[in-house]
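As a representative case, the lines below give one protein's residues and fold tokens.
***
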Amino acid sequence: MDDPRARVARAVSGMVAGGYAVDFDLGNGSVPCDQCDRSLGNGDEVTAALSCYEGHTWELYGLYCAAHGVETIGASMGAGSDEQAVVAATLEPTGYHDPRGDHHPEAVSLGGVDVLDYAPMAYD
């Protein structure tokens, strides 16, 4: 049987550090910490709160400076019905091709992912 933590690490490694719930600046490769608003970029160690939307795609719900110690689902977003995880990662300058086909060469993504907390999908 597949280790869910290893599966999550594989799924989110290389994921662009931004999305609907996390603002990011594709032009200069930065994303703000959700707790202190510090600009984070290439080489910064972070923790990220994620949820797997309806079992299909992982979405960022929060990105934090590693120094804040946000290491649990409860400390970052609270329990929900979707599969959830909190990971430690280093921001890497990998670039990003958005759904419209535009390329953003300065965008950063999650690298060196280590799953700190994991919760499976909750069923009714």
Summary: The radius of gyration is 14 Å. The first strand starts at residue 31 and ends at 32. Residues 4-119 form one domain. The chain has one domain: 4-119.
